[in-house]
Amino acid sequence: MKYIAFMFIVLSFVLSGCNDDTGLLSGSSTEVGLKALPEEASIPVGLSQAYKAQAIFDDGHTTDVTTHEELHWISSDENIATIDENGVARGINEGKAWITAQGIYHGETFTVKNSLNVTLIGIESVLINGDSEINAGLSITLTATAILEDKTQHLMSNDGKEVIWTIVSQAGSGAVIDPNTGVLTTTSESIGLIIIEVTGVSHAWEGSITKEIMVKGLEVVKASISSNIDVVTAGLPVLFSGDLFWSDHSTTSVSNDGTMVTWSINPTSEATGSIDPDTGVLSTDSNSNGEITVVMTGTSDAWRESVEKTIRVKKVIVHELNVSSDKDIVDNGETQQFVATLTLSDGSLHITTATGGEVQWSIKSLDETSVDICKGTTIDPNSGILSVSTYCTGAITVQAEGTFNDQLLKSSKKVTVFMRKIDKCGGVVNDMTDGKGTCLKVVVTTDNSLYSAPPSINILKKLGYLQVEGESGGRTYAKLDNENFALVNQMGGNVDGIAGQYDRWCTELKSIMFAGKSTWRRLDYNDLNYIYENKGPLGTKYNWPVFEQSWSDSIDGPGTYSTRNFESGERRDSYPEKQHYGTCVAPE
């Protein structure tokens, strides 16, 4: 499943003396924790779950150690689930296993255990994800999503162990697909219809489905290079990007991964440097003072020409480093982007890139009262993105430092973290108030599961939500009903709605532990029916807003989700761009 960007949760870890090996990483920082995701997972027999492990250091920065040679993955019962050196677990038989990540750092052993349930739930259907059109000469990556019998989804692994990919037929010629990764590569001769087949090779699914992809015979009429600045300070990096303009007036942004173009430079005697051939990041030498020409060269059958852009490299002195952010107050469970700006001797400003080439970020200090409860708070050392742990409160000081003109510069900024909180309307479940204030209505069903009503505009304002009708990220809703309650869509995420507006709202309730629960999620098909059958018409009995349908995460047909009206009981299928109520459930 796509992930997105999501919040890391620190898991418990055990420290014990071991030996003198430096282990996971060497350096001046001290490792204080190990975390792994997902914290809890469930997979059917025959399918897989990928885990990620990160080392947490005392200055708040993290490093991915998933495949580090000193990080060991262990399954408590290989008859139930196995796990390989890359952190990929696979279900063998029904049951529960503990997945352990264990590593050594400076003689101390760090261990974290996550639970994995392996079920006998079958696969109901499979969908192929990916564009249905492609320009000749380009490549796309196809993936397959399994819809399980409980209406949850599983993104099939593209490693050849769950599915394999083949081309059934092609009108043109030259197109190939990697049987394991699902990467379809076309040539200039591949124009026309291609039929792709994906076939299951695990015990979970041994069927096959096809997808039609139309390869269009368009031509690149122009290519261009762009950068955020045209004059760069010597010794500082600059990121270049490129675009291809097609004969039908459409545009494709080149991927900076080496698959579409490669980058090079033509230095001069006055200005020198180097450029990453894949990412297009130019690093200039500190003594440069002149022009450098950047060259983008096509590497696909769609475009194999070159285009150039010349920039000026000037030699100036960095006088000052300043750290800023758009907010001084951050909610726990949130992320916050910090920015480092350099003041130059000619009076101009330079905003640093997120590559780590200019400054490194760290958490300089926490309030004494925050040290324990903020252990899971981390900062990306390159990008300056602060990830605040779920229960963290207090003051956090973030620092950026870098060496310029042989001088170490530092700057910091303090932000305050508050606990986000929403109260139940009336302070109880099954309350009859109208829910239009800064509270959220909740009903409890016979099985002791909690269901939340749609939030009012006052709740949305309190939490900083913005109205965005199309695809979006962060705290957004699509529109309001005629009583000012939120309607949300399921766009902006994957085919299964993960990271869409509805999913993000339920994740919000989970992160703030609304009503004391950390299990809030979207309704599945069974929840959608159970709440209505158990509680009856929610508008009449509990004063809920019921003018619109309510979402579930259940995919009912090609690209549609099951919905239900909680007053009339009417069921409908609805596309992800539609706008409905977002009721969440916290199972007992």
Mean pLDDT over the residues? 88
* CATH top level label of the largest domain: Alpha Beta
User: Class by helix and strand content?
Assistant: mainly beta
Q: Care to count the β-strands?
A: 51
Question: What are the low-pLDDT stretches, counting only 5+ consecutive residues below 50?
Answer: 1-22
The second-level CATH architecture of the largest domain is: Roll
Tell me the helix content. under 10%
Q: What is the CATH homology-level superfamily of the largest domain?
A: Mannose-Binding Protein A, subunit A
Q: Nearest-angstrom radius of gyration?
A: 26 Å
Number of helices: 4
Question: Total domains, how many?
Answer: 5
Give me the oligomer status.
single chain
The geometry reads as globular
Reported for the largest beta sheet, the result is: 5 strands, antiparallel
CATH topology of the largest domain: Mannose-Binding Protein A, Chain A
Strand and helix map with partners:
Layout: E1 31-37, E2 40-44, E3 48-50, E4 52-57, E5 62-64, E6 71-75, E7 81-83, E8 88-91, E9 95-105, E10 108-119, E11 123-129, E12 133-135, E13 139-141, E14 143-148, E15 153-155, E16 163-170, E17 176-177, E18 183-185, E19 192-200, E20 208-216, E21 220-227, E22 231-233, E23 237-246, E24 251-253, E25 261-266, E26 273-275, E27 281-284, E28 290-298, E29 306-314, E30 318-325, E31 329-331, E32 335-344, E33 349-351, E34 360-366, E35 378-379, E36 385-387, E37 394-404, E38 407-418, E39 423-424, E40 439-440, E41 442-444, E42 450-452, H1 457-463, E43 466-467, E44 476-477, E45 479-480, E46 486-487, H2 501-511, E47 521-522, H3 525-535, H4 538-542, E48 555-557, E49 560-564, E50 571-574, E51 584-586
Parallel strand pairs: 2-10, 12-20, 22-29, 31-38, 39-40, 43-44
Antiparallel strand pairs: 1-4, 3-8, 4-5, 6-9, 7-8, 9-10, 11-14, 13-18, 14-15, 16-19, 17-18, 19-20, 21-23, 23-24, 23-27, 25-28, 26-27, 28-29, 30-32, 32-33, 32-36, 34-37, 35-36, 37-38, 41-42, 42-51, 45-46, 47-51, 48-49, 49-50
